[in-house]
Write a structure and sequence with these properties.
Elements: H1 3-14, H2 23-31, H3 35-47, H4 52-57, H5 63-72, H6 75-87, H7 91-107, H8 140-159, H9 164-186
Helix pairs in contact: 1-2, 1-7, 1-8, 2-7, 6-7, 8-9
The structure holds zinc ion (ZN).
């Protein structure tokens, strides 16, 4: 899934069960697994001037980045963090790692050739899904549309209880989805 969608969907799933002070840990946990990808992209594209194709085929494939990215998408590690939060009575920690766990579970069914090793450190297994959230060879066009519609639905769900700032951010995410879809599939 796309990073902003994780934040909106995780908020829709989790925020009803917790107090507003948990909003930040939900968003942070939803975004964190993809932060290394963003750092890698910005570094390679803007500092080193590499074209996008080489970033994904070369830089992204280096063990350091793959281990970092896949480790942040690990179901056992994020589950452990969630359980530590529950066991120590820290709802902020539990919600933060729980949101990371939801991110990993959200990515699992929609990554094909770029599947993460979601079971580190116990296994290097990668589930190569028959569908992808971006790759047209794996129904990317349809899956991306379904993801965008899910995010729109989650936005509608969150709208009533959201502040003006939150509504502006939610609108920005929807606009970004529309733009990305147009750029990838309709241009
Ligand atoms: Zn991810």
């Amino acid at each position: 899934m796309h990073t902003p969608g994780h934040a909106v969907i995780n908020l829709a799933i989790l925020s009803g069960a917790v107090t507003p002070e948990h909003t930040l840990p939900i968003v942070a946990g939803a975004i964190l697994p993809d932060v290394p990808i963003v750092v890698l992209y910005l570094r390679e594209h803007y500092l080193r001037g590499l074209p996008e194709e080489r970033i994904w085929s070369e830089s992204y494939q280096r063990p350091f980045w793959l281990n970092l990215i896949h480790g942040a998408h690990s179901i056992p590690l994020t589950l452990l963090g969630t359980l530590v939060g529950v066991a120590t009575g820290s709802s902020l920690v539990a919600i933060f790692f729980g949101s990371m766990l939801l991110h990993a579970l959200g990515d699992l069914p929609v990554h094909a050739v770029d599947a993460h090793r979601h079971f580190l450190p116990f296994s290097h297994y990668r589930f190569i899904s028959p569908i992808s959230y971006w790759d047209p060879r794996y129904h990317g066009r349809k899956v991306a549309l379904v993801e965008a519609l899910l995010v729109a639905g989650a936005t509608a769900w969150l709208w009533r209880d959201s502040s003006l700032t939150a509504r502006l951010l939610l609108s920005a995410v929807l606009a970004w989805y529309a733009f990305s879809y147009w750029k990838a599939f309709l241009r």
